[in-house]
Design goal:
By secondary structure, the chain is an alpha/beta fold. About 40% of the residues lie in helices and about 15% in strands. Strands 1-2-3-4-5-6-7-8 form an 8-stranded parallel barrel, surrounded by 7 helices.
């Protein structure tokens, strides 16, 4: 099976370029410099209309923390319903409690609101007190199809052994470890061979000059796709 390539999009142009160049799926965000916040309904609708590949939309009301209060959840649930109405494939969410464990109640409420959409648990996972314990919790939630992680490190390239263990832990489940943050074109083939991940996530690594706020660069997405296809054979 080829390795799935997910690319962050922040504009309709990003989405079109990534899709045409070989991305399998998009993560749509705004405020990428803050780690990604919920995009506008207009942007979600426009991107869904513009591309034929799945669009997963981040639902994150602020960048203060991943511990949310009742008002935050009220906003998130409204946004999740809006994402579904806009025709997106899935949502990208993450929530912790004050002790650094997965907020199971909040996650359950979000999954209920998602009503069949694919759910990716984002890099809030990397701030959990125990990554293996957190993954065990997520593997028990049927709606969670992906866990985006850098293995608890600033760059996933610093956590290859951890990623390999998480992939092993999730083996046989419907949930995929989605490796991202700090992944580069130069390192991706060796990284996939070493960790056996089935999905990778690119942001800055496929942008002009490697800058997170720059546009997606078609040639880099093409290169990423070719590298992943080669290592999968």
């Amino acid at each position: 099976m080829p390795v799935l390539l997910e690319v962050i999009a922040t504009t309709v142009a990003d989405a079109r370029v990534a899709a045409r160049a070989g991305a399998d799926r998009l993560e749509l965000v705004t405020a990428m410099g803050e780690g990604g916040l919920t995009p506008s309904v207009g942007l979600i609708e426009a991107v869904v209309d513009a591309v034929a590949i799945p669009v997963n939309v981040i639902v994150r009301p602020h960048s203060r923390s991943f511990v949310y209060d009742a008002d935050d959840y009220a906003v998130m649930l409204r946004d999740i319903r809006a994402v579904k109405a806009a025709g997106a494939n899935g949502i990208v969410i993450g929530m912790l409690d004050a002790a650094g464990a997965i907020d199971r109640e909040g996650l359950a409420r979000a999954c209920e609101a998602a009503d069949g959409l694919d759910v990716t648990f984002h890099r809030a996972f990397d701030e959990a007190r125990d990554l293996r314990e957190a993954l065990d919790v997520l593997l028990c939630v049927e709606a969670v199809k992906n866990v985006l992680t850098s293995g608890g490190k600033p760059s996933v390239l610093q956590a290859q052994a951890v990623i390999r263990e998480l992939v092993r832990q999730a083996d046989g489940s419907p949930c995929t470890v989605l490796a991202g943050a700090g992944l580069t074109l130069e390192a991706v083939a060796d990284f996939v061979s070493e960790t056996h991940v089935e999905a990778v996530h690119f942001g800055s690594g496929v942008r002009v000059n490697g800058h997170g706020l720059a546009p997606v660069e078609a040639a880099k997405v093409v290169q990423a796709r070719a590298l992943l296809d080669a290592v999968a054979r």
